[in-house]
Records
---
Amino acid sequence: MEDMKKTVDLTPRPEYPRPDFVREDWMNLNGTWAFAFDDENVGLSEGWQMPGEPLDGQIVVPFAYQTKLSGIGPTDAIHPVIWYKRTFVLPENMREKRILLRFGAVDYACSVYVNGHKAGDHVGGYIPFAFEISGLLEEGENEICLRVEDEPDVTQPRGKQYWQKGLMGCWYTPVSGIWQTVYLEAVGETWMKSIHITPDIDRREARVEISLNRTPVAACEAKLEVSYEGQPVQTLCVSLRERITTIPVNMNVRVSPELDGMLTWSPSNPCLYDLKVTLTEGAVKEDCVSTYFGMRKVEVKEGRVYLNNCPIYQRLILDQGYWPDSLITPPSDEAIRKDIQLTLDFGYNGARKHQKVEDPRYYYWADKMGLLVWGEVPSAYLFCDEEIRNVADTLQGFIDRDFNHPSIICWVPLNESWGVREIYTDARQQAMGRMLYHMTKAMDGTRLCSANDGWEQTTTDICALHDYADKKEIIDAHFASREEVETHACDWRPCYAQSEQPRGTEAFMVTEYGGIAFTNIGLQGKLENMETWGYHDKVTDEEAFFQRFEGVTKGVQEIPYCQGFCYTQLTDVMQEVNGLVTPDRKPKMDVERVRKINTAR
């Protein structure tokens, strides 16, 4: 019946894009935008950025044109220059305020125009950016225009995005343009750029660093309200006189008569504190942001990883975050939750998000559901000054955006010497590895760093080795002696770079292994007639899978000095069919049986 029909929200990804940095007054700009390819690169000279200049197509934001959900793909066609346009009317509650235009991610370089005037430029395909556009807005309808460049360039951090047409090895269809949510926020004259919360469980305090857009010009006060599950914990009022201020918050208070004064975050007990920061200047409310944090500590001591001062054995799975119809953009918030739940159901306590700065809501749900996460920078593939700068910028933006997520316990700047192929002997490439490690520790001293995950380590917290042996006895032989592994070349690649010596404190982990593919499961659509791959021979049935899976997993679990593992991988991705589940997230085998093997140690 007509009166029983439910209203359907036609805006894709309608949820607030950053649950760790929430403002009440905002507007989601996802949905249908005007769109055009500019293969001849004539858009600027012809004035496409000007209001009223039409674009000849449409696209559904935030999905890249290569995807089915965009309304254009699927396609692997390369279009180095693309354009977007849409109009909007500012909601009543956001008028008479400063307006921020925010982009979750645009791959790769873009210029943004509002009503024909340039708002700014941005370079970097995985990190967020924003422009304050108040001075460019008009009464009534306004127009946003983007010109995006995404060349098949291997100096830019690409991750698993192939730089040519087609598919190759374990590289997949690339994405171009907008691939995360676009939105507006309303703020005052003085507003908060970031809130970084550093937990210190030993001191039983959290340090809150507030960064403003400018140095306060008048008496500026920040009201900090800490709560737990709706119960007040502590309220502080602090005068802000500088653009960046650090405020210690004492967590040694009782949440309730029944609870201890400080609750720590862990996978088994993912306790989260809420923090609301209200900024006033004089008698005027300038800004208000809600965020959250977890009280947790991660460190490496004498070859072991500790979480909250207790040893932890990590059972990770490699997760590339691709979906058949949307590539690297999660199709929905529920799809993110499903992937995390699958990870937990299979008996893993963590995920290594491989070659991707993930949608912020993935880390939010990992925080809420209790999953450890390794954050990995997408690789570039040509060593040069430009690559160094691009990778470093992406790493900095990644840490800045996701600093508050307690689920993230390790940063991975480099993977398997990608982009630094001569790091074993080349002093410059070794210097880049050390630079990224020390940059990571300078920006975030609370987490671990696996500097070149896989082999040929420079300075690192994790001695991470990848080994795709298909039999337990081979694993046993490879890892019989830690000293032999670290000081001599292994069967595949050396463990450390030539000039590097183990410090003796690193935790050893096998951070890729397995990769078992089926002969007859996981193929979809156009891939059915192409060659697919996993590691070694494909297995023919479930029992054959378990025979190999149990053998290699036990082999890794029995390495006496090993502090954890990472199995390859959670899902099939295009031609790579070595996932535990198909691209549409259907398990290929008995989930509980996998769980029992993973948790045997």
---
Amino acid sequence: MDWTREEVEAIVADYLKMLTFELAGQSYNKTAHRKDLQTRLNGRSDASIEFKHCNISAAMINLGFPYIRGYQPRANYQMLLGKIAEQQVSGAASLDQVALAAVQQPASTPLQTDFNKVKTAAPSKNDQRSVNEPSNPLAFNAVKRDYLEREARNRSLGLAGEEFIVLFEHWRLIELGQSRLADKVEHVSRSKGDGLGYDVLSFESDGKERLIEVKTTTFGRETPFFVSRGELALSQGAKDHFHLYRLFEFRKAPRLFDLPGALDQHCVLDPVSYRASFS
């Protein structure tokens, strides 16, 4: 049975409340929220509500917001849900405030004692568009801010992530019995500048260079990230050496996945801006 407008409005509003609590660092009970929702959702099952929460997560990403931990994005959502999510976030002043504070908050390199638990599998490349309705490439969402893009510009967070990867690579090479190579790991974005297309110089066990670009987020594994033209070109031109390390859940318990080689093999790349000039 299709969800009615009233049902969609109710579940989106409740999702935004939970997201506001989460970004503000306040505790809340997902089960209690779900039970309260069921009284307003025509007897929807727990599974149906959970699936809709995942749809809302995908809509939030499309609107430039982080999503609630545990509700992994599922992109085959109805157009009505996207429209209602857009309408409700545009009037959510408290969500705007806590989201902005969350993405701009300074970060420091966390102490890590067990790097064995850091690495995980990467998401698979797939088409995140709705399977029910065609995507309109000229459609605009009336969002006041792209919080994910703002987080990507958080230099404190980016630097902390890079420092974390320097430590991780040192540990990785020592685990491989290559302490000499471990001592040569270099934070090149600091020592040589930001224009190289990668942040950390590391090595394979045979001494071959590993060029690592680091992208760090406080949020979940499926959170989109931004790459420059230079980073994309390097990933294609030096694909036998290039690795993009995606750090996620950085403030809570840092995890990472590795995208080796050309980035367009792993990700759907959407152009989000153009340089406009007169010559």
